[in-house]
Design a protein that fits this description.
Radius of gyration: 15 Å
Helix content: 25-40%
Mean pLDDT: 93
Distance between the termini: 7 Å
Order of helices and strands: HHEEEHEE
Strand order of the largest sheet: 1-2-3-5-4
């Protein structure tokens, strides 16, 4: 299973995430005119761990995923990020970073989680 598929499954199956955003989980970017809050995810890096003989075994590749929780308010973005964090931990995906952004042009807030997913 790809990292993207695994992450999507974890987020859309988590009651806490679904309660806050419904099914608004998107790869790459949030489509225009979508109600907020919403979540988007994007693979930012892939680290292969080959064996001594150069073989890459299943489960030995680390995909680094950036998961952005976007909302109209900081509090809402933080609440969605907290729910996403719990969903990731429940799926044994490791959250390794968290940051807050504000876009002055759109006046939207985003909490971005950095999540390691092994595939």
């Amino acid at each position: 299973m790809s990292a993207e598929t695994s992450l999507y499954a974890a987020l859309t199956a988590a009651a806490g995430v679904v309660a806050l955003i419904g099914d608004r989980v998107y790869p790459d970017k949030i489509p225009a005119q979508v109600a907020l809050p919403a979540v988007t995810y994007l693979r930012s890096d892939t680290e292969y761990t080959p064996t001594l003989h150069g073989t890459i075994l299943p489960g030995s590749t680390r995909a680094v995923m950036d998961v952005a929780c976007v909302a109209a308010t900081r509090g809402s973005a933080e609440a969605v990020a907290d729910a996403v964090l719990l969903a990731c931990l429940g799926a044994t995906h490791m959250v390794t970073g968290r940051s807050m952004q504000h876009d002055p042009e759109t006046d939207l807030y985003a909490v971005t989680l950095v999540v390691d997913v092994w595939e």
